[in-house]
Specification:
Blueprint (H helix, E strand, L loop, with lengths): L2 H17 L2 H14 L8 H9 L3 H16 L5 H14 L10 H11 L12 H9 L6 H12 L5 H9 L10 H11 L5 H11 L9 H14 L1 H14 L23 H14 L6 H14 L2 E2 L3 E2 L2 H12 L4 H13 L3 H18 L3 H7 L11 E6 L2 E8 L2 E7 L5 E2 L4 H6 L1 H26 L1 H4 L2 E3 H9 L5 H4 L4 E3 L2 E6 L2 E3 L5 E2 L4 E4 L7 H13 L18 H6 L2 E2 L6 E3 H10 L13 E2 L2 E5 L4 E9 L16 E11 L5 E4 L6 E2 L18 H18 L17 H8 L5 H13 L9 E4 L2 E5 L4 E5 L5 E3 L4 E3 L21 H14 L7 H4 L3
Antiparallel strand pairs: 1-2, 3-4, 4-5, 5-6, 7-12, 8-9, 8-12, 9-10, 10-11, 13-18, 14-18, 15-19, 16-17, 17-18, 19-20, 21-22, 22-23, 23-24, 24-25
Helix pairs in contact: 1-2, 1-3, 2-4, 2-5, 4-5, 5-7, 8-9, 10-11, 10-13, 11-12, 11-14, 13-14, 13-15, 14-16, 15-16, 15-17, 16-18, 17-18, 17-21, 18-19, 27-28
Length: 828
């Protein structure tokens, strides 16, 4: 609406008021609202201010005119909504009335299903009318107004209205919040204190609590009871992130608001984390805070991590909580979290602990790993009456089992244990979950030790690794070098390749195949197989990437993993998990650095050059504007402090961005990169391609959008094997003779050939895609998320899902007469 229109309507208000024609004025105002597209801000506010300046009697008659217009036959839904809002505005400060009360309630109910609304909609007029009439506002309506007020910027009216909506203390719609409200209402003796405590928690809008905030929180906690508060908060944390109790409407291009935290309740969650950190340390508290960090960093479509602020608050709470349990959670999270902001807080917390104890960061991470009740490496027993509970690490999982008084295993928890030892049972189950989480975190930390190039004194290493009740369950399945001699653990002792025991030494390092000749590597693989040791990750079978002739020719860069098409978001997650820094490429006019990995131990920075693919239509970008796919280019190395390279997100040449006085730095010759560093970096990049390539997608035979990737898909799906696939081939040579279908399987170049009754099939060892007779026709089988390889017996390492998929497909196709899936049958 222009300034001229505004003046015109101001004059019209004066004229209609003088004439007493308020019904006509109501009709004029609704026309103006329609012209203004329902916007009630900017110049239009001058018209509203003029209305509010009318005498009460005139505004009362105008309100009656709006009611008449609301019921007019020509009024549609938009006009009726505008009439309700205008009615609320002009009726403000008038005596309570019931004009269109039911209709106003219906509109508020409709609004309550929104996440938030534009503050210019002036919906606060509807709520003010309800408050003036003395009617309670529905909790779901309160929630949407609170959320909208957080985004209202300088809109004082909406903010002031939201401040009046003090009940309930938390927003409904989230399971944890509704449970908290029920818990507070269920205890009349301390109900008011509970309500005050929840309201105080919701004021946690800063990064850290102030001393004044802590003082108030401590007083309210004392009023409720510290133990009661701790137990309740832990229950609520466990419910955070659950599906909403009722879904909110979501626009076509909006992020998944139903998967995110309610922003008002998120503040309350932050406050509760601060609050529990004021209580005496307890293992359950540390466990609950650690789980809340992970829940809060879980990805939500169109949004990213669910709520990093809540995750950061939980980390800060752990950091200011005393005790070994909190330190253990910090160490575990540091090995698992990839979100930069939260990881930075975790690093700072662990560094602070290390400084306080006069230790190095690596040492504090080692010392922070608890035993979780394990009394020997990977095992403990506990008597519960006449029943014996056994917790035992099997692979990378902890298993709880039971024995009766005769020592015989029983399948389920005995009734006597449930009845007489409920608390001990709860603690055992919690310990099993803790061991599972920590085993996974420690496996990832150990896998990163190759590039850390750590060394330990023999006694320290035995204490923190080999003989540690939890870490020992992993360390005893790895190979190490003691004073330069390679050893593994078998039959209760460290042993050499010839099974000679090793009982002492000075210096210990983690063994890596790049530092040993092929014959020795093969011998150690045989040793592991002979002792039936399954390694927690690839070590003896770890891929090695020596320099190729092509790389010696290019000198400073490797094209080994160039010209691939990767799914961007999968690549982004993998890069973060492997310690790389990457920015999502957006379909905007912007630049970004390559994916990089800093290697401080070596003073190096590795770069993988990538660019966004497409962006010309909706099939190439997400609703949030990020490219769905990437194209890959060179791998390079620079000194760690060299200026950063950058290129346009949609493609183009990389160039070094120089600040004042900086000189360009040349990439380092690949021949100068230590073999261990080169092989580990290229192994990461091989993983990115091997997992995130669109060539792995069995449904992309048509080449994807517009068929653009048909040539790439075909070349990748059935082309030359990468190093990972070559490892699979070597392993399958040993595995096939043990399979029940061994007589139907042969290795033929890049394929595992399987003879079925209907056809003969060829499974590619890289992509796991399938060709069948006759004429190498493509067979599309999409593996499930939990594809397993039954009946394979001993495997030398864990974690290769591609190998499991190949074996699973082989088992199915060897017995193709038993296939019942209609999608697969239609292709046979």
């Amino acid at each position: 609406m222009t300034m001229g229109h505004v003046q015109r309507y101001k004059d019209l208000i004066r004229q209609r008021s003088a004439d007493g024609d308020f019904e006509a004025l109501a009709a004029d105002l609704l026309k103006a609202a329609h012209i203004n597209n329902g916007g009630w801000t900017g110049l239009w506010e001058g018209v509203l201010n003029r209305l509010c300046e009318l005498p009460p009697q005139a505004r009362s008659r105008l309100a009656d005119g709006l009611v008449t217009q609301y019921h007019a036959d020509r009024s549609g839904p938009t006009a009726r909504n505008n009439a309700l809002i205008l009615l609320g505005i002009v009726s403000r400060d008038l005596p309570p009335h019931n004009r269109l009360a039911a209709e106003r309630t219906a509109l508020l109910d409709e609004i309550s299903r929104q996440h938030s609304f534009w503050y210019g909609a002036r919906y606060e007029a509807l709520v003010e009318a309800e408050l003036a009439a003395g009617r309670p506002v529905a909790p779901a309506v309160v929630a949407v107004f609170r959320r909208s007020a957080l985004q209202a910027y300088d809109n004082r009216d909406l903010t002031e209205t939201a401040k009046k909506l003090t009940e309930p203390a938390l927003n409904v719609g989230e399971e944890w919040a509704e449970q908290a409200l029920r818990d507070a209402a269920a205890d009349p003796a301390v109900g008011p204190a509970w309500q005050e405590l929840l309201a105080h928690a919701a004021t946690a809008t800063a990064a850290k609590p102030s001393a004044k905030w802590d003082e108030r929180a401590a007083a309210l906690t004392e009023a409720v009871g510290p133990e009661r508060v701790r137990e309740a908060a832990i229950r609520w944390f466990a419910l955070a992130g659950r599906p909403r109790t009722f879904e909110l409407d979501r626009g076509q291009y909006e992020p998944d608001v139903n998967g995110a935290y309610d922003p008002c309740n998120a503040n309350a969650l932050r406050g509760l984390t601060w609050l529990v950190s004021l209580l005496p340390a307890h293992p359950d508290t540390a466990r609950a805070l650690g789980a809340l960090v992970e829940t809060s960093l879980r990805k939500v479509a169109g949004l990213g991590p669910r709520n990093p602020k809540v995750a950061n608050a939980a980390v800060n709470a752990l950091a200011r909580t005393d005790g070994a349990a909190a330190l253990a959670e910090l160490a575990r999270l540091a090995a698992r979290v990839t979100f930069k902001g939260t990881l930075k807080l975790l690093d700072a917390a662990l560094d602070a602990h290390a400084r306080a104890l006069g230790l190095g960061r690596d040492e504090i991470e080692e010392l922070a790993v608890p035993a979780y009740g394990l009394t020997e490496v990977g095992r403990t027993e506990q008597r519960l009456g006449e029943i014996t509970a056994v917790v035992e690490v099997q692979g990378t999982k902890a298993v709880l089992s039971w024995r009766n008084p005769a020592g015989k295993a029983v399948k389920s928890v005995p009734a006597a244990v449930k009845r007489d030892h409920a608390e001990e049972l709860k603690d055992l189950k919690a310990a099993v979950k803790d061991v599972d989480k920590m085993l996974s975190a420690q496996s990832e930390r150990l896998d990163r030790q190759f590039l850390a190039d750590r060394t330990w004194s023999y006694d320290t290493w035995r204490e923190r690794y080999l003989d540690h009740p939890l870490v020992g369950a992993l360390a005893r399945r790895l190979l190490w070098t003691v004073d330069g001699t390679t050893v593994g653990h078998a039959d209760g002792a460290l042993r050499t390749l010839t099974d000679e025991p090793v009982t002492a030494g000075a210096e210990v390092r983690l063994w890596h195949p790049v530092e040993h000749p092929p014959a020795e590597i093969v011998a150690w693989r045989d040793w592991l197989e002979r002792h039936e040791i399954t390694q927690p990750f690839k070590q003896a079978h770890r891929e090695v990437y020596p320099l190729t002739d092509a790389e010696r020719t290019t000198g400073t860069y490797s094209n080994r993993f160039a010209a691939h098409i990767l799914r961007q978001h999968q690549f982004h997650s993998l890069a973060a998990a492997r310690g790389w820094t990457n920015r999502l490429r957006l379909a905007v006019d912007d630049t970004a650095p390559p994916a990089t990995r800093d290697l401080p131990r070596w003073g190096l920075r590795a770069e993988y050059w990538i660019e966004g693919d497409g962006g010309e239509n909706d099939q190439d970008v997400t609703d949030s504007g990020s490219f769905l796919r990437l194209r890959t280019d060179q791998v390079r190395f620079y000194p760690i402090d060299a200026p950063q390279n950058r290129a346009h997100c949609a493609g183009g040449e990389y160039g070094m961005w120089l600040h004042d006085g900086e000189a360009p730095v040349e990439p380092l010759p690949l021949s100068d990169i230590p073999p261990l560093v080169l092989t580990e970096v290229l192994r990461d990049v091989d993983l990115f391609v091997g997992v995130a390539s669109v060539g792995n997608d069995p449904t992309w035979q048509d080449g994807g959008p517009g068929g653009r990737f048909r040539e790439y898909w075909t070349g990748y799906s059935f082309g030359e094997l990468n190093a990972t696939a070559e490892t699979r081939r070597t392993l399958l040579q040993r595995l096939i003779p043990r399979l029940a279908i061994a007589d139907r399987c042969t290795l033929e170049g890049r394929f595992l050939q399987v003879k079925g009754d209907r056809h003969t099939y060829r499974i590619h060892l890289g992509s796991t895609n399938i060709l069948r007779t006759p004429n190498d026709q493509y067979l599309c089988i999409v593996p499930g998320a939990d594809s397993a390889a039954p009946g394979t017996g001993y495997l030398p390492f864990e974690g290769d899902r591609g190998l499991a998929v190949i074996l699973s497909k082989a088992m199915m196709l060897a017995n193709d007469l038993r296939i019942t899936d209609p999608t697969i049958l239609s292709q046979l």
